[in-house]
Write a structure and sequence with these properties.
Two copies of one chain form a homodimer.
Chain A (H helix, E strand, L loop, with lengths): L21 H16 L6 H8 L3 H8 L2 H27 L6 H22 L2 H15 L8 H21 L5 H19 L4 H5 L9 H18 L6
Helix pairs in contact in A: 1-2, 1-4, 1-6, 2-3, 3-4, 4-5, 4-7, 5-6, 5-7, 5-10, 6-8
Chain A binds a DNA duplex through α3.
Keywords (chains A, B): DNA-binding, Transcription, Transcription regulation
InterPro entries (chains A, B): Homeodomain-like_sf, HTH-type_TetR-like_transc_reg, HTH_TetR, PsrA_TetR_C, Tet_transcr_reg_TetR-rel_C_sf
Protein name (chains A, B): AcrR family transcriptional regulator
Chain lengths: ~230, ~230
DNA sequence: GTCTATAATGGGATAGAC
DNA sequence: GTCTATCCCATTATAGAC
């Protein structure tokens, strides 16, 4: 494959540093593979192979497998969190009935994620799937730590907004509602294909646009089921 | 426990096979470890170490790592599925308003699982967590196959019951509701600790008894949000 | 600073002892 | 039929070439 490397006149240091993008290629490959098979299901060889670089370059650029995993999360985390925070801010300006305002907050949590999954390019799609997988990991595996740091305080502001909107609800029930909502999102974004199988192919969990409004209505109804008062 | 087997006059092939329980010990250890770290996150050495048997015995008794994983699932799958089927049958005998009947079906899906998790002993707890982890695995990883086989047709009967109860709902919306419900359950049973962190320890996702009724009310409300008609 | 060659360990699986 | 000693390869990590 590397045939004809016979005559090499004098290429001094012509393309020294031909790897400004090596680290990015490794990150892209790691993001994609980790999101599909999890931290343990992917080896550095798999990642290096997909990125078409030497195995040990993963080590050179990131230090260890766990550090690489963290780097994958960190690359997009700031934008991810900031974007959700902005969506919440905007939702809080919505006027209307309590149901309308509740749905606005609910939608503000799922829509930025779905938007990035569907229209942010493959990298974002993989990143979101990876987030879902981290959130699903039982207990506090070492590698899941970065996710909690970036995310949990943002969730607090969503819950606070929903508490303000429902002073009549028991505080605990607001927590349960949002917890159930997050659980739905987490599972769905992991793209397990469950709906696809069980509906015999008639509906697809990857039809995220169609899903968002169903989900908003379902969760809003769930709040009513747990005691949210009338408009 | 089986102490005092001293005087055995003529034990021809008496304790040949002193390992009737070796396989069970391996299964128990595998069940526990797989449920915590997934298929890839556990090595046969880990399992053998936890079971206090030689590494290669896992191979002797089960043939391969993947076959062992299947064996773990298969051991309890029949009882698991049968128990859910019975719960559905019983729920369908409930009389009352449509909301009451809907909640009965919803409860019949989560309650048998929670019962086994909480009061079926550690083995069941680990098994349920393992089921959740399989359901969360993206796409069709090889090792996830057994789960789908055992489970999907059972889900069909739940969906059919809910369709019967809601002839006024669009068929697709019933699918979405049940899909959302399953997603919630799946994530929660994986025990991610998300609620525990985000509520500052005030509520625990491991308080399953407290959770069941919240969940039933939430999901029932979700059906209303997606167009289920009045009682 | 960037990459290649190589080490040291842990992985699943097997051949043969009892 | 049950278990032990061993194999070969994949894995992460490092030491040193450019």
């Amino acid at each position: 494959m590397t045939g004809a490397e016979a005559s090499l006149p004098a290429p001094p240091r012509i393309d020294r540093r031909r790897a400004p993008e090596t680290a990015a290629k490794i990150l892209d490959a790691a993001e994609s593979l980790f999101s599909l098979r999890g931290f343990y299901g992917v080896s550095l060889r798999d990642i290096a192979g997909a990125a078409k670089v030497q195995v040990a370059l993963t080590h050179y650029h990131f230090g260890s497998k766990e550090a690489l995993f963290r780097a994958v999360v960190d690359r997009r985390a700031d934008e991810h969190v900031r974007c959700l925070a902005e969506a919440l801010d905007q939702a809080l300006t919505v006027q209307g009935s309590r149901t309308e305002r509740r749905k606005a907050i609910i939608r503000a949590f799922i829509l930025p994620i779905v938007e990035r999954t569907m229209r942010g390019g493959p990298g974002w799609k993989h990143y979101i799937r990876l987030m879902a997988q981290i959130a699903n990991a039982p207990q506090q595996e070492d590698y899941t730590v970065p996710f909690g740091q970036h995310f949990d305080d943002l969730v607090q502001s969503y819950i606070a907004a929903l508490k303000d909107l429902h002073p009549d609800m028991e505080e605990g029930k607001v927590y349960w509602c949002f917890f159930f909502y997050q659980a739905m999102i987490t599972h769905i974004l992991a793209e397990s294909g469950m709906l696809d199988r069980q509906s015999g192919g008639r509906f697809h969990s990857s039809d995220l646009d169609a899903m968002v409004e169903q989900m908003v209505d379902f969760v809003s109804g769930g709040f009513l089921g747990l005691g949210a008062g009338p408009d």
